[in-house]
Amino acid sequence: MVKAVFAGSFDPPTNGHLDIIKRASRLFDSVDVVVSVNPDKKYMFSQNERLEMMKELIKDFPNVSAHVYEGLIVNYAKEVNAKVLVRGVRSSNDFGYEFELALMNQNLNNDIETVFLQSKEKYAIVKSSSIKELAKFGGDISRMVPPIVAQKLKQIYSN
């Protein structure tokens, strides 16, 4: 059985994230979606809000579960016996960053492989930071995020 981990801040979760999760769920026996916590980073949504949104969004994937973790993702993977880290890549800029991160993770634990899943073209420009900015100014984000995320962003920016 091959277990994979897909980690990110998911602030907020996007349709691009969900596409990677869906595709990873077909490739691996189980997938842990890990809401990463970096105490030095300022998030729009709390870790519990991000986790609850993710749990709602993955409920139809029987082999996918959501968790919160603060620390190195290779340590999480080792703790749960995962052999693969899944990373989504939207562009060559993403690839450069993700490649270096994969090399670092390999140095920390060479038993864990990194698999890159390229973004589908329609999600290539979908970034959480851009979505938040669009939502702030009333832009249409309906094709970029699931409805529950759009609703939460609308609530935040209507106040």
Keywords:
159 residues, alpha/beta, five-stranded parallel β-sheet, 6 helices, globular
Number of helices: 6
What is the spatial order of strands in the main beta sheet? Answer: 3-2-1-4-5
- Rg is 15 Å
Oligomer: single chain
SSE string, helix = H, strand = E? Answer: EHEHEHEHEHH
Mean pLDDT: 94
Report the biggest beta sheet as strand number plus sense, adding barrel if it closes.
5 strands, parallel
Find the count of extended strands (DSSP E, 2+ residues).
Answer: 5
Question: Which term fits the overall shape?
Answer: globular
Structural class: alpha/beta
Low-confidence stretches: none
As a percent range, the share of helical residues equals: 40-55%
| Beta-strand content bin | 15-25%
Terminus-to-terminus distance: 47 Å
Explain what you see.
- The chain is globular.
- The chain has helices at residues 15-27, 47-57, 73-79, 92-108, 128-136, 147-158, and strands spanning 3-8, 30-36, 64-69, 84-89, 113-118.
- The model has no long low-confidence stretch (mean pLDDT 94).
- Helix content is 43%, strand content 19%.
- The chain starts with a strand and ends with a helix.
- Helix 1 (15-27) links the parallel strand 1 (3-8) and strand 2 (30-36).
- Strands 3-2-1-4-5 form a five-stranded parallel sheet, sandwiched between helices.
- The protein contains six helices and five strands.
- It is an alpha/beta fold.
Blueprint (SSEs and pairs):
Layout: E1 3-8, H1 15-27, E2 30-36, H2 47-57, E3 64-69, H3 73-79, E4 84-89, H4 92-108, E5 113-118, H5 128-136, H6 147-158
Parallel strand pairs: 1-2, 1-4, 2-3, 4-5
